[in-house]
């Protein structure tokens, strides 16, 4: 089995309505997927327009990259490349604490 770091794809230029389920359905024809994540705005939960799709096997990811780069999904051409910054998709670090203080107000957050 290939390292998840060498079999993860960055999928960009996503339509705002693209979900993890749709990406899973779209990319699973290339091989077994270990994880999918659409990145979203922390406050609004709207899509940021990109995702990571990680395969268990690197040859599956290579096929997906070749076939799906510039392919249309919801009338937008996908921009696909190797993902080198999807570590948070593939493993969680228990030392990472991204929670916000409940007393934090919007103006302070913007500072």
Any overview of this molecule?
This protein is an alpha+beta fold and 111 residues long. The protein has a single domain, classed as Alpha-Beta Plaits (2-Layer Sandwich), CATH 3.30.70. The chain has four helices and six strands. The protein has helices at 20-27, 58-68, 87-90, 106-110, and strands at residues 8-12, 33-40, 47-55, 72-73, 76-77, 79-82. It has a four-stranded antiparallel β-sheet, with helices on one face. A hairpin with a 2-residue loop joins strand 4 (72-73) and strand 5. It is globular, with a radius of gyration of 16 Å. It starts with 7 loop residues before the first strand and ends with a helix. Mean pLDDT is 83; it is low at 92-100.
Query: Mean pLDDT across all residues, rounded?
Result: 83
Number of separate structural domains: 1
End-to-end distance, in Å? 45 Å
Q: Give the CATH level 1 class.
A: Alpha Beta
Which topology does CATH recognise? Alpha-Beta Plaits
Residue ranges: pLDDT <50 for 5 or more in a row?
92-100
What is the H level of CATH, i.e. the homologous superfamily? RRM (RNA recognition motif) domain
Helix count equals: 4
Please state the structural category: alpha+beta
**CATH architecture name:** 2-Layer Sandwich
Question: Based on CA inertia axes, which overall geometry fits?
Answer: globular
Strand content: 25-35%
Please give the order of strands in the largest beta sheet. 2-3-1-6
What is the radius of gyration computed over CA atoms, rounded to a whole number of angstroms? 16 Å
């Amino acid at each position: 089995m290939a390292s998840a770091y060498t079999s993860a794809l960055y999928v960009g230029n996503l339509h705002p309505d693209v979900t993890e389920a749709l990406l899973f359905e779209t990319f699973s024809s290339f091989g077994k997927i270990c994880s999918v994540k659409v990145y979203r705005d922390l406050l609004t939960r709207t899509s940021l327009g990109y995702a990571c799709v990680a395969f268990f096997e690197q040859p599956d990811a290579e096929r997906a990259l070749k076939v799906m780069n510039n392919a249309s999904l919801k009338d937008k051409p996908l921009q696909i490349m190797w993902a080198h910054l999807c570590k948070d998709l593939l493993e969680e670090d228990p030392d990472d604490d991204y929670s916000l203080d409940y007393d934090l107000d919007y103006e302070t957050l913007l500072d």
